[in-house]
Amino acid sequence: MTTVRDLMSTDVAIVAPGLTLRAALELFATRHIGGAPVMAGSRVVGVVSLSDISSFEASTPGVPGAEPDRPEWELEPPEEWREGDEAPGAFFTDLWPDAGADVLERFDQTGSPEWDLLGEHTVGEVMTGRVVTVNPETSVQAAARLMTTRQIHRLLVLEQGKLVGLLSSMDVVRAVADARV
User: Hey, which CATH number is domain 4-60+118-177, 1.10.15.40, 3.65.10.10, 3.10.580.10, 3.30.990.10?
Assistant: First the structure.
């Protein structure tokens, strides 16, 4: 009987709950993985996947873009401004004491936290806290059945409460393709 130990990956990428979503995505891309266990110290506290991050991104309102085309408004012609008069926009800057050139610069910097949703939020905010685990001696058939029933793509492999590996749906598919199962 083929067990989880025979197929599991032992070089497991782990992430911390405080890691930004952008950093997690960069890790996933460089390691060619779709998710990772979330650990606080030596304790597993969750799992984060590409699905978790994309669900978060999809449920969050987008950043404001350009104004949509609006019907023409009939406006009064602006008053003529003369050198020495108070600037027309001074009224607004008086209400907003920290306004200035830096406000315009902030709007131009779309990589700032106001615009970088993935850099502003953390793994801990989107991770799945209910972790599904198996032990290394579980049969691959039982593990595959569990993944199918729970509709998940990875199982954390714990031995005496310690993370020792990860079994992904891709590990099972590879084993089937290689006729190891």
Answer: 3.10.580.10
